[in-house]
Amino acid sequence: MNYLMPAQAAAQLFSLIVLSAIARWYGLPWLNRQTRATALISLLWVHVGRYVALQVPSAQGTGFPISNAGAMEIVVGDVAGAILAFAAIALLRSRIRFGLALTWLLAAETVYDTISNIRGGVREHLMGAASGVTWMILVFFVPIVVVSAILLIGQLLSRRGEALDSQYRSDVTELPQ
Q1: Which of 81, 96, 97, 144 is the most buried (most CB within 10 A)?
Q2: Running DSSP on this structure, what letter comes out for residue 3?
Q3: What are the residues whose beta carbons fall under 8 Å from the beta carbon of 162, sequence distance 6 or more?
Q4: DSSP string, 124-175
Q5: Where are the beta strands (DSSP E) in 16-156?
Q6: 94-137 pLDDT, tens per residue?
Q7: Eight-state DSSP code of residue 176
């Protein structure tokens, strides 16, 4: 039996659980005290780092058994996500509302990219095949991107109609410490 598959799956699940707890206990209360633009920008910065996917060809060269098509799909999706995130940040910092449209586009792209990458990984039997930097990216960075995307969508939905620079939130109550 390949013990690497359950080890990687368990590590990813544990990362998702820990990151979800951090998001719930610390992230959400902090985000809800920020302006809409600041909250979104804070979550978008995580996605700017998605260009780390440019590491995939190097992983191929050291034995990660992903096809060229699968590698290209990951690289294109994540680099596109990084570019969208950076562009949205630049617009939101200037309080240009088109930044909201780019943020929604990034959220949709991230959902599609995540589902597509999971299906590709299953199709190519990649679970448990990662090692080194690739393992670290899959176990730590990918869950951070997923939790950030969930928070991003939550902020987009719960604060729609709110001005980008508004501090006032009538629906927020302070959580007890």
Answers
A1: 81
A2: T
A3: 36, 169
A4: TT-TTT--HHHHHIIIIIHHHHHHHHHHHHHHHHHTTTS-TT----TT--PP
A5: none
A6: 999 999 999 999 999 999 999 999 999 999 989 888 889 999 99
A7: P
The yes-or-no verdict on residue 169 having pLDDT over 70 is no
> What is each CA distance from 41 to 20, 147, 148, in whole angstroms?
19, 15, 11
- 167 falls in which pLDDT band (50, 70, 90)? low
Q: Say how far apart CA 104 and CA 12 lie, in whole Å.
A: 26
Kindly provide the b/e burial profile for residues 110-147, where b requires at least 16 CB atoms within 10 angstroms of the residue's own CB.
Answer: beebbeebeebbeeeebbebbeeebbebbbebbbbbbb
What's the rounded Cα separation, in Å, for the pair 150 and 76? 21
- Tokens matching residue 96: 């240009």
Question: At 23, is the secondary structure helix, strand, or coil?
Answer: helix
Tokens of 167: 């501090």
Inter-axis angle of helices 142-158 and 36-48, to 10 degrees?
Answer: 160
